[in-house]
Design brief:
The chain is of the alpha+beta class. It has one domain (about 5-105). The protein is about 30% helix and about 25% strand. The protein has helices spanning about 5-10, 20-25, 70-75, 95-105, 110-115; strands at about 15, 30, 35-45, 50-55, 65-70, 85, 105.
Length: about 120
């Protein structure tokens, strides 16, 4: 079980990311699910592996949440990333991903975070 300070240390770990990787992202429909999804693994400078799961709701395309890992959720029997806040800070999955990449210390050409396609 991770403490909140250990979670914060993981967030602060530098995670290099190339523009090539971002350009290859293609969300795929999930069978019998109301969302499209794509998983991406990134290795940090300290050799830790991070998995990014991108999901886009196909029914309510303006339904966005910010999921945050906290210690209290698994302590209560929920998934570590079960905590989520509704947000209107963005209106598409690419802007949501860009915000997460910046907030969680993914590094690359700054232009790649501004407008990848």
């Amino acid at each position: 079980m991770l403490s909140d300070s250990e979670i914060q240390a993981l967030i602060e770990d530098v995670k290099p990311l190339s523009s090539k990787v971002l350009k290859e992202i293609q969300l795929k429909n999930k069978e019998n699910r109301a969302y499209k999804e794509y998983d991406l693994e990134v290795k940090s400078k300290s050799d830790k592996i991070f998995r990014i799961r991108i999901r886009a709701n196909t029914i309510n395309i303006l339904d966005f949440h910010i999921h945050k890992a906290t210690k209290r959720y698994p302590d209560a029997g929920f998934r570590i990333d079960g905590y989520a806040e509704v947000t209107d800070s963005y209106n598409n999955w690419k802007d949501a991903l860009t915000k997460m990449l910046k907030d969680c210390n993914f590094k690359g050409e700054m232009s790649l975070f501004n407008n990848f396609n």
